[in-house]
Structure formats: structure tokens, C-alpha cells
Amino acid sequence: MTTASDIMHRGAQWIPAHETLDRAAQLMRELNVGALPISDQNERLCGILTDRDIVIGCVAMGHDPAKVTAGEMAHGTPRWIDANADVGDVLREMRDHQIRRLPVIENKRLVGMISEADLAQHLTEEQIADFAHSVYARGTTR
To answer: Which helix (H) or strand (E) holds 114?
Structure first.
């Protein structure tokens, strides 16, 4: 059985909820990623911040990214998957919630991230086609 741990990108890092968006953007640049999980004071997932969130939700609204925190951008219930979950569960979670990045949690701690690139490297062509169709079908919002 292929698990989330088998296909995830290791080395994912949190951005603490109290950090500003300018620092989040710097960390994204350093890590060469477009999204960071947001952690609360107990290092528990409380959201995900994307580069698009920073641009659309902060800069384009006329706000100063040096004054807005990652926690202020955390909305809704963050989605995640257990490291031991089957790849089918990973696909279902991403498809059902139309998300492109999924934090992987083990023992209540972040251990990795699964992105579309990770799926492309580890899935069959049929699995990738089914996933792409379900996530990118006309009328989706994410």
C-alpha cells in the first residue's frame, strides 16, 4: 500500500500565526514554495497561506504585508492527511475539497506536504487524469 508518507515532500515548514506576511513571503522564496501551513502557538495546523493569498488578500486590498499576520489570513477549516493514509484517501481529500496542497501530519506534527507535483511523480496516468478532471472540472472555485 502506498501511503501519504511515501509520496509527500519532506521538509515542509510552518509559518507561525503571529508572523507577518512579508516574512511569510521571504520564507516562501527561501524554500521555493507557494504555500505554507500556518501553526498556532502549540504547533498545530490552523490554516494554509499561499502566495496568492498574500497578493490578493493583502497587497491588492491596500494592506501592508509587514503589518498583517499569517493568522489573520487563516480562514475556514484546514485540511490535512495522516502520514499513514492510503494514497486513495489522499486523492479523495484533495478532490473532495478541491485543494492542490495537502499537509501531512504524524503524531499531531507536520512531517510533509503533498502537492500536485508529488502526485504526478507517484501516481499512474489514469489516477492523475481522474484527479485532474475532478479538481479542474468546469465550475470549480479553487
So the answer is: strand 109-115
Cα 107 to Cα 136: distance, rounded to the nearest angstrom: 32
Is beta strand 45-50 parallel, antiparallel or unpaired with respect to 35-39? antiparallel
Alpha-carbon span 85 to 76, nearest angstrom: 23
- Within 10 Å of residue 91's Cβ, how many Cβ atoms? 20
Grid coordinates given for 60: 491588492
Q: Is the pLDDT of residue 138 over 80?
A: no
Q: Which of 46, 38, 42 is nearest to 21 (CA)?
A: 38
- Residues 33 and 10: beta-carbon distance below 8 Å: no
Q: Which set of grid coordinates corresponds to residue 42?
A: 502549540
C-alpha closest to that of 38 among 116, 106, 113: 113
Pairing state between β 9-10 and 109-115: antiparallel
Q: For 67-76, b where at least 16 C-beta lie within 10 A, e where not — what string?
A: ebbbbbbbee
Distance CA(114)–CA(101), nearest Å, equals: 6
How is residue 25 annotated by DSSP? H
Q: What is the pLDDT of residues 52-78, one digit of tens each?
A: 999 999 999 999 999 999 999 988 788
